[in-house]
Amino acid sequence: MAASISGVGAKLGLPCSSKLSKAHPFSRSSGSRVKIMAVSVEDKKKTYTLRKSEEAFNAAKNLMPGGVNSPVRAFKSVGGQPIVMDSVKGSHLWDIDGNEYIDYVGSWGPAIIGHADDEVLEALAETMKKGTSFGAPCLLENVLADMVISAVPSIEMVRFVNSGTEACMSVLRLARAFTGREKIIKFEGCYHGHADPFLVKAGSGVATLGLPDSPGVPKAATFETLTAPINDISAVENLFNRNKGEIAAIILEPVVGNSGFIPPKPDFLEDIRRLTKEDGALLIFDEVMTGFRLSYGGAQEYFGVTPDLTTLGKIIGGGLPVGAYGGRREIMEMVAPAGPMYQAGTLSGNPLAMTAGIQTLKRLQKPGTYEYLDKITGELVRGILDAGKKTGHAICGGHIRGMFGFFFTEGPVHNFDDAKKSDAEKFARFYRGMLEEGVYFAPSQFEAGFTSLAHSSEDIEKTIAAAEKVLSKI
Q1: Most CB within 10 Å of its CB: which of 59, 74, 302, 445?
Q2: Residue 158 main-chain phi, psi, to 5 deg
Q3: Three-state SS for 398?
Q4: 3-class DSSP state for residue 405?
Q5: Positions marked catalytic
Q6: Count of CB atoms within 10 A of residue 64's CB?
Q7: Helix, strand or coil for residue 362?
Q8: Burial 422-445 (b: 16+ CB within 10 A, else e)
Q9: d(C-alpha 82, C-alpha 13), whole Å
Q10: Which element (helix H / strand E) includes 467?
């Protein structure tokens, strides 16, 4: 089933309405909904300006490193003025200058049912009446844990944490504890958070900013980290042959999203599963991005390959900080206090994140959810690729359900080296042009895009029209 890669708010004077701009099967309405007013690609009503964003960002640079709290937000790879956001609703967002955008970042993945969903907000309001953090067990943890275990094939027990980085850091420690081995294999361009052992040939912001392996990481922290190109099974076989009985685990994104969108080649995941079993190593799927996005059971359900351990995040918190790791019971029972592998967290399992996650997963259970995501995302990607070819650009791309990406290169793109052949300067010009047309993509060629149930056919049509307009000028 592997996919292929082929050739702002009220204070700003925004009006409110009880209706979306255009109804679609998963739209919702309430009296508090902000009216969707996408910028027209034919007749923009006001001059595009980022004056307030520029003022706010200049002030931020004196307060926070680079003016941001996560590097990609600084627009280093695309140039231009970083945007300071004011509000979000559904498939749209608004900046502090009043510009409106169709959003394909979705808070980097969590907003799969749309931003600021009314049912999620109502549930959060009720939970907040009881408190925002207990530092003790709460019933909501049981509910979300049961939902995750029921959905994800590999998970028999789960531990909630506060971020994807924390989940991946913890699952690595667990894999080493369970196997009694220290070496791990990760793939070039894959990003598993910023824990020291993973900052070797990493993707995401490391790739976006063109950084070398991060200063401050001791050689000892990465000495046992082995790397291979994604989709190259012979390279993985060679690593196992040279390190027999020494590899604790392989960790990978089953669909790479931190070098751009790169799906696995046919049989690659199956072959990885076979190699780990033969050597007694564990297979870890980092599904922080793909979990509950490619299917309700994640990439492992979609591709039919079950790992030993899985990390989750993003969607299971419904827009609040969250992470999780889980897997076979015999492995998870090594985690303290059941076992000797220590991991803890002050805000882990906090009631707000649990509430938002529960409500989000309930919505994803509804019939037609993933068919709708596949439909609109396919239309979007095909439209952008057609526009690129029509205007004479080398371009390739693909999608699976609500996750997509495209590169300014003929392709195909099967690994990070292929992705780096993309014309990054052209992407930067395309990106800035799309902002002026009211479309917000991730500010990096090396990040996947995301759609949501709140995206309408009108959103897709406007985006494609904007893409053709911009591509004809660059």
Answers
A1: 445
A2: -140, 145
A3: strand
A4: strand
A5: 191, 286, 314
A6: 10
A7: helix
A8: bbbebbbbbbbbbbbbbbbbbbbb
A9: 22
A10: helix 457-471
Dihedral Cα 214, 216, 218, 222, nearest 10 deg:
-20
Joined tokens for residue 379: 């239309």
Reply yes or no on whether the pLDDT at 453 is more than 50.
yes
Mean pLDDT of 399-427: 97
More confident of the two residues 223 and 274:
274
- Name residue 264's amino acid: P
| Concatenated DSSP letters of 87-147 | EEEBTEEEETT--EEEESSGGGTT-TT-BT-HHHHHHHHHHHTT-S--SS--HHHHHHHHH
Instruction: Express each pLDDT in 379-412 by its tens digit.
Output: 999 999 999 999 999 999 999 999 999 999 999 9
Q: Which two tokens stand for residue 378?
A: 């396919």
Which two structure tokens, joined as six digits, stand for 95? Answer: 């900046």
The Cα–Cα gap between 123 and 130 comes to: 12
Question: What single-letter amino acid sits at 238?
Answer: N
Q: What angle do CA 204, 205, 206 make, to 5 degrees?
A: 90
Count of C-beta atoms within a 10 Å radius of residue 318: 27
Contact between 377 and 450 under an 8 Å Cβ cutoff? The reply is no
pLDDT tens column, 201-229? 665 544 444 444 677 888 888 889 999 99
Q: How far apart are CA 143 and CA 377, in angstroms?
A: 31
Longest dimension (CA), the chain: 65
Is residue 65 reached through a cis peptide bond, with omega within 30 degrees of 0 on the bond before it?
A: no
pLDDT above 90: residue 300 = yes
The residues, any chain, with a CB within 8 Å of residue 197's CB and separated by 6 or more, are 172, 184, 221, 222, 224, 225
- Please, are residues 114 and 466 in contact by the beta-carbon 8 Å criterion? no
The model's pTM: 0.88
Q: Does the pLDDT value for residue 132 go beyond 70? A: yes
